[in-house]
C-alpha cells in the first residue's frame, strides 16, 4: 500500500472488465458487444461534426441528445440524464441517491459486479438477495427494510427477464425507496420500465448505447425518471464534470436514437440468431437459461465450464467464464453474427 493513498483505497476491490484481446482473427463472444456496426446515420452525424468546432467545448447539457431520448420514449427532457456510459450514470446514482441512506441497498446475488464495487467506493451498506434455484428474481424477496433497490433487467450475466408487471409490483411494495432498473439489454426481448416513470416518482431507469445501438466505443449512458431524481444527478455531474459528453458523442448518440429502422433491424437479427444458437446448444447437451439479452448463459452437465472456455480459446473463440460459486459451471456467450455463432459451434464440435 502506498503511503500516499487515502485509507479507503486499500480495501477497494476494483471491477474486472471482460478481456479485450489484442490477438487478431479471434471470434470475440465475451463482452456482449453488438456484432453489427452503428447506425449509418450516427456515423454520418459524427463525420459531419469533425471540423473546426472541435476547438470549442460541447453543450454542457447535451440538449440535442436529451431531446432525442425524450421524443423516443415520450417523456420530457427534464426527465432525462446523460453521461459517459451507464457506468458513470450509475456512479452518480450511487453517490447521490444511495450514499446517505440508512439500511442496506438491495441487489441480486448474481448480478452486475459493479454494484458491490460502487458500494465499497461510496461506503454504502448493501445486501445481496439470492436468486431462486432457476436464477430468477423473486419480487417478494425485496419486501424488506431497505435503503434502495437496484437490479439489471434482463439480469446479467444470466439474461433472465423480470416482466414489466413484476417490476411494477416491486415498485408498489417499495414506494419509500429509490428503485433503479438497469436496462442495458432491454431492447433484445424485454419491455422497458420507462413507461412507469410518470406513475412512480421513486423509479429511475438506466440504459446504455453500448449494446443495442452498437456504440460501445462512444461511451454514452442515460437515465430516465422523475425530474427531482434527475436534478440530483445533474447536481452531482455539474460538481464533478460539467462537460461529460463530447461533441461526437452527443450527435452520434442522438442520430442513433433517431434512426429507428436500423435499430429495429439489428435487434431483430440478434434475437433471431440467439434463438438459433440456443437450439443448437441444447441439441449438443447444453442447459441454457431463458435469455432476453444479446447473450446466453449456458452450462453442460458433463463438461467443466472453465475447461470448455480454455479449449474454445485454443480454437480462436473467446467466451466469458465467471468463477463465482453459484455460476462457476456456466459460460456467458455473446450473440454474434450467424457466421460467428457457427464458428463457436464448429469449435464445440
Question: Summed up, what is this model?
Answer:
With 349 residues, the chain is of the alpha/beta class. Helix content is 36%, strand content 15%.
Write structural notes for this entry.
This protein has helices spanning 40-49, 63-73, 85-98, 114-122, 164-172, 227-240, 247-258, 260-283, 305-314, 338-348, and strands at 27-29, 80-83, 105-108, 126-129, 148-152, 179-182, 203-208, 221-225, 287-288, 295-299, 317-321, 331-334. Strand 9 and strand 10 form a beta hairpin. It has a 7-stranded mixed beta sheet with strand order 2-8-7-6-5-3-4, with helices on both faces. The chain is built from 10 helices and 12 strands. Helix 1 packs antiparallel against helix 7 and helix 8 (260-283) runs parallel beside helix 10. The chain folds into 2 domains: 7-37 and 261-348, Aspartate Aminotransferase, domain 1, CATH 3.90.1150; 40-259, Aspartate Aminotransferase, domain 2, CATH 3.40.640.10. The protein has 349 residues and is α/β, with parallel strands linked by helices. The protein is 36% helix and 15% strand. The mean pLDDT is 94.
Briefly, what CATH class of the largest domain? Answer: Alpha Beta
Strand runs, count: 12
The CATH superfamily of the largest domain appears as Type I PLP-dependent aspartate aminotransferase-like (Major domain)
The CATH architecture of the largest domain can be given as 3-Layer(aba) Sandwich
Strand percentage lies at 5-15%
Low-confidence runs of at least 5 consecutive residues: none
Gross morphology is globular
CATH topology of the largest domain: Aspartate Aminotransferase, domain 2
Instruction: Bin the helical content.
Output: 25-40%
Structural class: alpha/beta
Question: Please, how many helices?
Answer: 10
Give the SSE order as H and E letters: EHHEHEHEEHEEEHHHEEHEEH
Distance between the termini: 48 Å
Strand order of the largest sheet: 2-8-7-6-5-3-4
Amino acid at each position: 500500500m502506498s503511503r500516499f493513498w487515502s485509507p479507503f483505497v486499500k480495501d477497494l476491490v476494483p471491477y474486472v472488465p471482460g478481456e479485450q484481446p489484442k490477438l487478431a482473427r479471434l471470434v470475440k463472444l465475451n463482452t456482449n458487444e453488438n456484432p453489427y456496426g452503428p447506425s449509418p446515420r450516427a456515423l454520418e452525424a459524427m463525420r459531419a461534426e469533425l471540423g473546426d468546432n472541435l476547438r470549442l467545448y460541447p453543450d454542457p447539457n447535451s440538449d440535442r441528445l436529451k431531446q432525442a431520448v425524450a421524443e423516443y420514449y415520450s417523456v420530457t427532457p427534464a426527465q432525462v440524464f446523460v453521461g459517459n456510459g451507464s457506468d458513470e450514470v450509475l456512479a452518480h446514482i450511487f453517490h447521490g441517491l444511495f450514499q446517505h441512506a440508512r439500511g442496506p441497498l438491495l441487489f441480486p446475488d448474481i448480478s452486475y459486479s459493479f454494484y458491490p464495487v460502487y458500494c465499497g467506493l461510496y461506503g454504502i451498506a448493501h445486501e445481496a438477495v439470492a436468486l431462486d434455484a432457476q436464477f430468477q428474481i423473486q419480487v417478494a424477496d425485496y419486501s424488506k427494510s431497505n435503503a434502495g433497490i437496484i437490479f439489471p433487467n434482463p439480469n446479467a450475466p444470466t439474461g433472465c427477464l423480470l416482466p414489466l408487471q413484476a417490476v411494477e409490483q416491486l415498485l408498489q411494495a417499495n414506494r419509500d425507496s429509490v428503485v433503479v432498473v438497469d436496462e442495458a439489454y432491454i431492447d433484445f426481448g424485454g419491455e422497458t420500465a420507462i413507461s412507469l416513470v410518470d406513475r412512480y416518482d421513486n423509479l429511475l431507469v438506466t440504459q446504455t448505447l453500448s449494446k443495442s445501438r452498437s456504440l460501445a466505443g462512444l461511451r454514452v449512458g442515460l437515465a430516465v425518471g422523475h425530474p427531482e431524481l434527475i436534478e440530483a444527478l445533474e447536481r452531482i455531474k455539474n460538481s464533478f464534470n460539467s462537460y461529460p459528453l463530447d461533441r461526437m458523442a452527443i450527435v452520434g448518440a442522438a442520430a442513433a436514437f433517431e434512426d429507428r429502422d436500423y435499430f429495429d433491424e439489428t435487434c431483430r437479427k440478434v434475437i433471431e440468431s440467439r434463438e438459433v444458437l440456443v437450439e443448437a446448444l441444447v441439441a449438443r447437451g447444453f442447459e441454457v437459461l431463458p435469455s432476453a439479452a444479446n447473450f446466453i448463459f449456458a452450462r453442460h452437465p458433463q463438461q467443466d465450464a472453465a475447461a470448455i472456455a480454455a479449449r474454445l480459446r485454443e480454437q480462436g473463440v473467446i467466451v466469458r467464464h465467471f468463477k463465482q460459486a453459484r455460476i462457476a459451471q456456466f459460460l456467458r456467450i455473446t450473440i454474434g453474427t450467424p457466421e460467428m455463432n457457427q464458428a463457436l459451434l464448429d469449435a464445440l464440435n
